[in-house]
Amino acid sequence: MEWRGVIPAITTKFNDDLTVDHTFIAEHVKWQIDAGCTGIMALGSLGEGATLTYEEKVAILKTCVEAVGDRVPIVAGISALSTAECVQLAKDAQAVGCKGLMVLPAYVYKGDWRETRAHFEAVFQATPLSCMLYNNPIAYGVDVLPEQVAELAERNPNMHSVKESSADVRRVTAIKHLVGDRIAIFVGVDDIIVEALAAGAVGWIAGLVNAFPKESVDLYNLCMEGKYAEADPIYKWFLPLLKLDVVPKFVHLIKLTQQEVGMGSERVRPPRLELVGEEREIALATIRKGIAERP
After folding, report:
1. Closest to 100 measured CA to CA, from 125, 75, 132, 121
2. Alpha helix segments (H runs only) across the chain
3. Residue 113 dihedral angles phi and psi, to the nearest 5°
4. What Cα–Cα distance (Å) separates residue 93 from each residue in 43, 115, 193?
5. Burial, 200: exposed, middle or buried (Cβ in 10 Å; 0-12, 13-18, 19+)?
6. What number of other Cβ atoms are within 10 A of residue 286's Cβ?
7. Which residue of 17, 40, 57, 163 has the fewest CB atoms within a 10 Å radius of its CB?
8. Nearest-CA neighbor of 215 among 36, 38, 10?
9. Is-cis flag, bond preceding 240, omega within 30?
10. How far apart are CA 255 and CA 198, in angstroms?
11. CA 152, CA 206: separation in Å to the nearest integer?
């Protein structure tokens, strides 16, 4: 597992009856890889992981692995109410062929650092798979500070990456100062990707990539090559769309964007409901403007 590049946090497409559309998922992940993405991350927040049954989660991972083969690694998002369920999901992810894990804090209960550390470490130690720590204090109410990231890295040799989604670019430099290149830093906030790469991040767990894989990969590659002047026009065009990833209804908006580019559906699982009325029209105006003006 090499933690680098653009790894889509894929959405989960549902059929009319809200069952999982495995045929589309297989097609979608191949499209992402053909555009240059370096891995696939399934079952995350954008994938509506909290609405999926345990059996559905394992089946989605299996679909991704079978669709991709050896082209790129499949990373499983690991989240649940209990540590025990996360540990079991990690083991089942390994069994179906995943190469990496992205480990979230436990849902609902926000523990102190002793409890949070124990949760992460139980999942890290459940398998030999390469692990990414997911830090998203905005969404999950648990903030793993740079010093704590360094502590986990020191204690857990198979923790190789962190997805830093605090939206504070200073966290990138703070983590690098503490751990150097021991940990691959990814950004999970779409609208600060250029700034984060400039600060030393090496990867992007991306959202709008679900609809715009080529543009996402081009933007990343230009930044990693230091060609910021060439990246700037893409970033300026992309920013209004990337900001759809950083609002509460980001799942609805990214799925709507996929539908508009002809690669997906806006259908979401309750408690989410599809956008309606003025809210939907405003979103569509932004999306359609972006499609019309894409580089």
Report:
1. 75
2. 22-34, 54-68, 83-96, 113-124, 137-140, 146-155, 170-179, 193-199, 213-224, 228-242, 250-261, 277-292
3. -65, -35
4. 11, 24, 28
5. middle
6. 15
7. 17
8. 36
9. no
10. 29
11. 24
90: CB partners within 8 A, 6+ apart: 76, 78, 101, 103, 123, 126, 127, 129
What residues contact 115, with CB distance under 8 A and at least 6 apart?
A: none
Write down the mean pLDDT value for the chain.
97
- For 107-150, write each residue's pLDDT tens digit: 999 999 999 999 999 999 999 999 999 999 988 899 999 999 99
Q: Are the C-beta atoms of residues 284 and 256 closer than 8 Å to each other?
A: yes
CA distance 72 to 30: 10
Nearest to 150 by CA among 142, 162, 139: 162
pLDDT score for 277? 98
Contact yes or no for 213/37 (Cβ under 8 A): yes
Residue with tokens 């230009």: 222
Give the distance between the most distant pair of CA atoms in the chain.
51
Catalytic residues: 134, 163
What whole-number distance in Å separates Cα of residue 115 and Cα of residue 58?
26
Q: What is the set of domains in the chain, with CATH numbers?
A: 5-227 (3.20.20.70)
Q: How many residues does the chain have?
A: 295
DSSP string, 207-220: SGGGT-HHHHHHHH
C-alpha R_g of the chain: 18
Segment 262-289, tens digit of pLDDT:
999 999 999 999 999 999 999 999 999 9
Residue type, 234: I
Instruction: Pick the closest to residue 245 from 204, 292, 200 (CA basis).
Output: 204
